[in-house]
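Hey L., structure's done. Input below.
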Amino acid sequence: MPEYSRLNKINIYSRLPMEGNEERKFNKEWKEKHRRFFQIAGITVRLESDLNFDKVKFKEEFGQFAVNGPGDDNVTFRHHFEMPDLKDQDLGKELYRKPPWAISRKNGTWYYLGIAPKPKDSTLHRVAVFNSNYMNATIFSCPDEAKRIRKTGWHSLSLFPTDQIWLAPLLADRNAVLLHSAAVNLHGEGLLFVGHSEAGKSTTMTFLKEHAEILCDDRNVVRRWDKGWRVHGTWSHGDVPDVSPVSAPLRAVIFLQQADQNAIKPLTDRKEIWRRLLATLIKPMVTAEWWKKELDTLEQLVEEASFFKMFFDKSGAIVSELMKLTEEKGLQTKDTRI
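Output:
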């Protein structure tokens, strides 16, 4: 069966006349083959593409986040595999330029141009157009990208090098932050281990693998819902491939420090907490508006969550201390369950 790229544009978007039954049959078949849904941190992404998804292999970790249909909070990405003609197009004021991206904005619309590393090379490998709140995007990729995907698979929902580029601004509008961190669900409580590369996040996940559900060892979302803070896993893992789409009420934010002892100590110094959190906040193309939203969320997190320092060696003995932490109900953060 041929790909639906042309038919999709003619019959779905242009809406040329079709017989009723024929159109219904086409729409049903198109949705089954060219639409998928994924959910992360309470946000459902409706993915639509010219390609037939039945013939495309998604990165394995995406399977954990796949859902059957829309949720309460939905965004839409539409993928096309031909480049638009941008000649003489006014894309507004350029706000950022550093390969692989040149980013501009006009009347609330964001334009992401995938640029070449050499300044004199004007070739574009991708063009993405987002509305003002990043809830709708049309993404154009080169035809060669479709060939590559058929061979190697779909590596990110946006086909960007990383999905955090679009996820971070969405989270800023939802009282949430994306942190360089590892997280687990232990005894029904969320433990968030914060730190940069080599801090020991993946090592800690290895220690806890037999005792807890790993959410992700490299990127996690902390979001404040009506009933409190929750930690959500993502598919952006590091050395440990285990990921989970579930969330858990945030029991503690734990800053890692390798040592020759095993202990968990409360951290109450607000300046130190702020410094450590800001150092691990995932930052996309930063705007003043985005910064204000994220700083407001972090301020609330610092006020309401419990923070600790974890000193640990390579023996794994720290696990027993973490077990105690989730069992000490008297220390739990208030108002954390949904």
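Residues 5-23+34-160 form one domain. Confidence is low (pLDDT under 50) at residues 1-18, 330-338.

-- N.
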